Amino acid sequence: MAIKALGYVVIGTQKLAAWRRFLLDVVGIMPAGSGPGGAELYRLDDRPFRFWIEPFDGERLLAAAYEISDAAALEALAQRLVAAGHPVAHGSPAMAAARGVDAFFRTSDPAGNGLEFYCGDTRDNVVFVSAQGVEGFVTGALGMGHAVVAAPDLAASHAFYRDVIGFHDTDVPRFYFGGGPPDDPGLGFVFMHADNGRHHSVAFGESPVPPSGCIHLMLEMTNLVDVGRCHDRMRLAGVPESATLGGHVNDEMTSFYMQTPSGFDLEVGCNGLVIDPARWQPTSHTRISEWGHVWAWQVEMAKAAAAQAEAAV
Length: 313
Ligand SMILES: [Fe+2]
Hints:
Layout: E1 3-13, H1 16-27, E2 30-35, E3 39-43, E4 51-55, E5 60-68, H2 71-83, E6 89-90, H3 93-99, E7 103-108, E8 114-119, E9 146-150, H4 154-165, E10 168-171, E11 174-175, E12 187-193, E13 202-205, E14 216-220, H5 224-237, E15 241-248, E16 254-259, E17 265-270, E18 289-292, H6 296-312
Parallel strand pairs: 1-4, 5-8, 9-13, 14-17
Antiparallel strand pairs: 1-5, 2-3, 3-4, 6-7, 7-8, 9-14, 10-12, 11-12, 12-13, 15-16, 15-18, 16-17
């Protein structure tokens, strides 16, 4: 069995119009029609859609969907999940057809984060044209990008994604945001690759699960100028920046983060590291970024500390 790639995401929202403006005007991807139940679809390459945005009683990443090599492997995965205590809900043939896949099911990880797995994908001849002039996205065998979720029980999530699903370790770091030991115990993360060259298709960190069920999604553009122009559009549209432009240590991505209408972040980057999944030796970094990536929460904490210091004078 192989996990081919991250194929698409399903997002539930009360803010369909805000998502439409965000994806079309800020990110610069393309409308791709509608799906059942009032879903709005968006594409960024030759897959009929990558974003499935549907009406929902709240704001949540309902599923990150990964393609499995074939029908037999998909069914074997469903059986492993059930045996491991994770119920699976098979999608109807009509819903599979709407997703452009042969078959799929939904399940969740130990933290309750939604997942779909499917086999039999679709490509078409529609040319990607961005109204914002985005040249394109790095997808193909590397998939849509990556999804990062929370894992309050890191060991349980690690065992689930590795032993039950079949992802592979890329980087198992501990990040120190507060100066390092002994005062700062750090935060454990796990970055895992599918059976393709993208550094990670899924990652999770030791933190409480946010209401949105997602830390961030990542899309990789083909060049730095398009990333910079997207950053400009974010600023001009008043979309909150979650982290400034920066470069990651582990996947070497040059990127920035902004807040989606559902509250989690979207990382937009370029020049990500492509690994040889057959030969990769897992790494263990202690820093998240080589440069930049100043997080909004770090700025707020620094401001609060400065105000406290001033009040104490
Ligand atoms: Fe990321």
